[in-house]
Design goal:
Elements: H1 23-36, H2 40-54, E1 60-64, H3 70-78, E2 85-90, H4 93-104, E3 112-116, E4 127-133, H5 144-154, E5 155-166, H6 172-188, H7 193-203, H8 212-221, E6 226-233, E7 236-242
Parallel strand pairs: 1-2, 1-4, 2-3, 4-5
Antiparallel strand pairs: 5-7, 6-7
Helix pairs in contact: 2-3
Bound molecules: ligand GEK.
Length: about 240
C-alpha cells in the first residue's frame, strides 16, 4: 500500500529535475496530494455523490489520469446504476499498476478496468460520468481543446463531466494572494519552505495551469450548455459540465 510520508524535496538537491509520476511518487502519492491540494477530500467525496446521481444503466464511467484511483474507488462505492463499468486510465505505468491493486482490493458491483495509456489517444464512448481530477494541467495546452471535444462527444445526453484543476487569477494582486494562501496551507501541513520551493521548481515546466475563463470557454466550444464551478479553495477549483 502506498502510504508513506512525502519527503521527496525535504533535503537540498544540487539540480531539481522535472517532476515525474514515477515509482518514488507512487509510494507517497496519497500523502502528497492531501497535503498539497486544498479540498482534495471534499472533491473526492463529491465525485462519489455526483457519480451516484448521474451514472446511468449500461454506460461507462471514466477516471482520466486516475493516479492511485481515489476517484474510481469512491465511485465504485457509490454507483447504484446497473451494468456500469469504470475505466481508469493513467499513462504512468507505476501509477496504473498500483491503481489496479488499490481499486480492485475493494469488492463492489461496478467493475473497474485500469488501463495504462494516454487519455489523448484512448477510446472513450457511451459515458455517463467522466472525471478529470487535476490531470488537464499536465496535458499540452495545445491539445486541451481537443480533449474537451472528445469528452463532450463521449458523453451520453444527461451525462456529467467533473473537471478539477489548479488555476491562476488574471488579476496579479489576487493571483499573488491566492499563491501565498496556498503556500501557507502547505506550511501548515508540514512542508518546509525548502520543500515548497524545490517542488515549485520541479513542477513549473510540467504543470501549466489556466485561468477559470479559459476552462469555461473550452467547455462552451466543446458544446456544453450547462457548466459551473461548484468548489474553489485558494487557487484550486472544481467544475461540473452537463451534456
Ligand atoms: C486523483 N486524478 O487522485 N494520459 C494519462 N494520464 C496522464 C496523462 C496523460 N496524457 N498526463 C498525466 N497523466 C488523481 C490525481 S494527478 C494530479 C491526478 C497531481 C496522469 C499522471 O501520470 C498522474 O498520475 C495524473 O495524471 C495527475 O484524483 O498529482 O497533481
Amino acid at each position: 500500500m502506498a502510504n508513506d510520508k512525502d519527503l521527496i524535496y525535504s533535503s537540498p538537491q544540487a539540480k531539481v529535475e522535472d517532476f515525474r509520476f514515477d515509482a518514488r511518487v507512487v509510494e507517497v502519492f496519497p500523502d502528497m496530494i492531501k497535503r498539497s491540494v486544498p479540498g482534495y477530500n471534499t472533491i473526492i467525496e463529491t465525485i462519489g455523490q455526483l457519480s451516484e446521481r448521474y451514472a446511468q444503466d449500461n454506460t461507462n464511467i471514466y477516471d482520466l489520469g486516475c493516479s492511485l484511483g481515489a476517484a474510481s474507488l469512491v465511485m465504485r462505492q457509490k454507483i447504484k446504476a446497473d451494468n456500469c463499468k469504470i475505466i481508469a486510465i493513467d499513462n504512468s505505468p507505476e501509477m496504473a499498476e498500483r491503481c489496479d491493486i488499490h481499486v480492485n482490493a475493494f469488492k463492489a458491483d461496478t467493475p473497474c478496468e485500469v488501463k495504462q495509456g494516454d487519455i489523448l489517444v484512448e477510446d472513450m464512448h457511451n459515458a455517463s460520468v467522466i472525471v478529470l481530477n487535476f490531470t488537464l494541467q499536465f496535458i499540452d495546452p495545445e491539445k486541451r481543446q481537443e480533449l474537451m471535444d472528445k469528452i463532450a462527444k463521449a458523453l451520453v445526453p444527461g451525462g456529467i463531466f467533473i473537471l478539477s484543476e489548479k488555476i491562476y487569477d488574471q488579476d496579479v494582486v489576487c493571483k499573488d494572494l491566492l499563491n501565498d494562501l496556498h503556500h501557507n496551507f502547505k506550511r501548515a501541513n508540514g512542508y518546509s519552505d525548502l520543500e515548497i520551493a524545490q517542488k515549485r521548481t520541479a513542477i513549473e515546466n510540467v504543470m501549466l495551469p489556466d485561468h477559470l475563463e479559459i476552462h469555461l470557454q473550452r467547455l462552451s466550444s466543446a458544446g456544453f450548455n450547462h457548466a459551473t464551478p461548484w468548489f474553489q479553495c485558494f487557487n484550486f477549483f472544481s467544475l461540473i459540465a452537463i451534456k
